[in-house]
Write a structure and sequence with these properties.
Blueprint (H helix, E strand, L loop, with lengths): L2 H13 L37 H14 L3 E5 L2 H12 L5 E5 L4 H11 L5 E5 L3 H6 L5 E7 L11 H10 L3 E5 L4 H4 L9 E5 L13 E5 L1 H14 L5 H11 L2 H20 L4 E5 L9 H7 L6 E6 L5 H7 L4 E2 L9 E3 L11 H7 L5 E5 L5 H11 L4
Parallel strand pairs: 2-3, 2-4, 4-5, 5-6, 10-11
Antiparallel strand pairs: 1-7, 6-7, 8-9, 9-12, 11-12
Helix pairs in contact: 1-2, 2-9, 3-4, 3-8
The structure holds pyridoxal-5'-phosphate.
The site of pyridoxal-5'-phosphate (PLP) has 14 residues, from helix 3.
């Protein structure tokens, strides 16, 4: 990545979309709390229509950060995913999903979309297999990179090229990387979605989602988002807008901390395996290096037999056992009991997700404090 782009993430996170407000407002945009607006105006505004001042501002900033034309900010990451699938597919149409997606996405597909008549195939991540799954009914391809929780990496340019050649819409969940470390639209992706609850919000205090893409695609998704009612209020949008100002500096430091911890954990006798794309032995290392500007703040590791997961978690003092990720504070969880608890035990076993797998969201604490916490919790009892 060039220095110019790095500057852009820091600068856009603070300034994009901010516009100019009358002097009495000072430097920060006003928080519009109204849910009632004059319907005789040129554009009818209403929070559920995703078009209040705070919505427009955050959408413009996220579009700038991801390099897209437009964005929709939704009430959650699942709100964004639901609007994408339901807005772009119909009963009988088909989508291809990368194997090993976030468990909530799999649950949405199994629990809602399939019963509505939408069809899906699972892609094993091998580029050669992707084309063989495409049928005349295929409308989109959805991937994550890095994946949750095993940090798998896909070749973004290749997926986007294959999708384009076949007239499919390519969608990526960019939650783990954030636009600071990865801008999939530059590799040809059509839509980028986020659980903004994670790095974009960054303080474990709001629930939000987003989808970024071309004006045409966002306009196709918007009516479904409005029907679903997955919009946000002005106060949460203002909180998200404020968080975006520190996104770049947070994510770069979290990524640096995670890289350091991954290396130390990888050498620890109590750990059988560390999943982190920054490690040279990670199967996606070279690909991640080619398409990311840093390997991210998320890593997973497998506790060696003999180390009880509960004992390890109880011994941690600084790192909090918690669901979610991407906050300034380090958190840890067992995906088997959190993000992937709703998929079948058999499916979890197939994916290699058991109770000994720990997913660590590395925060902004001093690296030596984090390491001391892990090191002491990993001491033999
Ligand atoms: C990668 C990923 N995508 C989507 C989601 C769903 O986001 P939300 O919880 O904001 O609906 C999550 C939540 O953990 C996630 O980790």
């Amino acid at each position: 990545m060039t220095d110019r782009r790095r500057d852009a993430a820091e600068t856009q996170g603070i300034h994009a979309g901010a516009g100019e407000f009358p002097p009495p407002f000072g430097l920060n945009p006003p928080v519009v709390t109204s849910s009632a607006f004059d319907y005789r105006a040129d554009q009818v505004r209403y929070p559920r229509y995703h078009n209040t001042l705070n919505h427009d501002l955050v959408a413009e900033r996220l579009a700038a950060l991801e390099g897209g034309e437009a964005a929709l900010v939704t009430a959650s990451g699942m709100g964004a995913l639901s609007a994408i699938f339901l807005g772009l597919m119909q009963p009988g149409s088909h989508a291809i999903l990368l194997d090993g997606l976030y468990g909530g996405t799999t649950d949405l597909v199994e629990g809602l979309l399939k019963p509505l008549g939408l069809c899906f195939s699972i892609w094993n991540g091998e580029p050669d297999q992707l084309e063989s799954l495409i049928t005349e009914h295929t409308r989109l391809v959805h991937v994550e990179s890095p994946t949750n929780p095993l940090l798998g990496i896909v070749d973004l340019a290749r997926v986007a090229r294959i999708a384009r050649q076949h007239g499919l819409i390519s969608v990526i969940d960019n939650t783990f990387a954030s636009p600071v470390l990865q801008r999939p639209i530059e590799f040809g992706f059509d839509l980028v979605m986020h659980s903004a609850t994670k790095y974009l919000g960054g303080h474990s205090d709001l629930l939000s989602g987003a989808v970024v893409g071309s004006n045409v695609l966002i306009d196709r998704i918007r009516p479904t988002a409005i029907r679903l009612g997955a919009s946000m209020n002005g106060q949460d949008l203002a909180l998200l807008e404020r968080s975006l100002k520190t996104l770049a500096v947070r994510v770069r430091q979290q990524s640096a901390n995670a890289g350091e911890l991954a290396g130390r954990l990888n050498r620890h006798v109590a750990i059988t395996r560390v999943f982190y794309p920054g490690l040279a032995d990670h199967p996606g290392h070279e690909q991640a290096r080619a398409q990311m500007d840093g390997f991210g703040g998320m890593l997973s590791f497998q506790l060696a037999p003999g180390f009880e997961p509960e004992v390890f978690l109880d011994r941690l003092g600084l790192i909090q056992p918690a669901v979610s990720l991407g906050g300034v504070e380090s958190t840890i969880c067992q995906p088997s009991r959190t993000s992937h608890s709703r998929i079948t035990p058999c499916e979890r076993a197939r994916l290699g997700i058991d109770d000994r797998l720990m997913r660590l969201s590395v925060g902004l604490e001093a690296i030596d404090d984090l390491w001391d916490d892990l090191r002491l919790a990993l001491c033999p009892s």
